[in-house]
Design goal:
alpha+beta; single chain; about 150 residues; 5 helices; 4-stranded mixed beta sheet
Length: about 150
């Protein structure tokens, strides 16, 4: 059974703090803290989601989200609050509006909507989609621009 130490004597706490501040952390404590910090920073870098907005006559407000420099979501016909709520529901990561992180992708979408581009060279991450959703998305990529196809097609 673990012993539970309660420091009710203020002098004991002060003495312990004095010792810690006088001696400082050990080398192993510093190495462990550095490793934890690096892991935390890498996690933040890998998991943070950035989004930006494009307003276009064809779609109105269009929202695009990226993580790890890959497009993970595009949506339109909804407001920003609903877009962010959908992202929060799908991902358990921090979400920030940072248009500068999504400018290149949004520019490609704009040029596409303007009719001046037929293909994209944007890296995408569709891993959150189900296998069926991924198959449907891959099938829709075979439909030529401006053409309509049904599920039966």
């Amino acid at each position: 059974m673990k012993e539970n130490k309660n420091f009710t004597d203020k002098s004991q706490v002060e003495e312990m703090l004095d010792t810690l501040f006088r001696e400082g952390p050990t080398n192993s404590m510093m190495i462990e803290a550095e490793m934890n910090l690096k892991e935390s920073l890498e996690y933040i870098k890998e998991s943070t989601i950035f989004y930006g907005t494009l307003t276009h006559p064809t779609t109105g407000s269009l929202f695009l989200a990226m993580r790890r420099d890959q497009v993970i979501a595009i949506d339109f016909g909804i407001d920003e609050e609903k877009f962010v709520a959908k992202l929060e529901k799908q991902f358990d990561f921090p979400i920030y509006c940072q248009p500068e992180k999504t400018n290149i992708a949004l520019q490609q979408v704009k040029v596409y909507l303007d009719g001046q581009r037929a293909n994209f060279d944007l890296p995408t991450d569709i891993s959150i989609l189900t296998d069926f959703q991924q198959q449907v998305l891959q099938a829709t990529q075979q439909i030529p621009r401006g053409r309509i196809a049904t599920y039966m097609d």
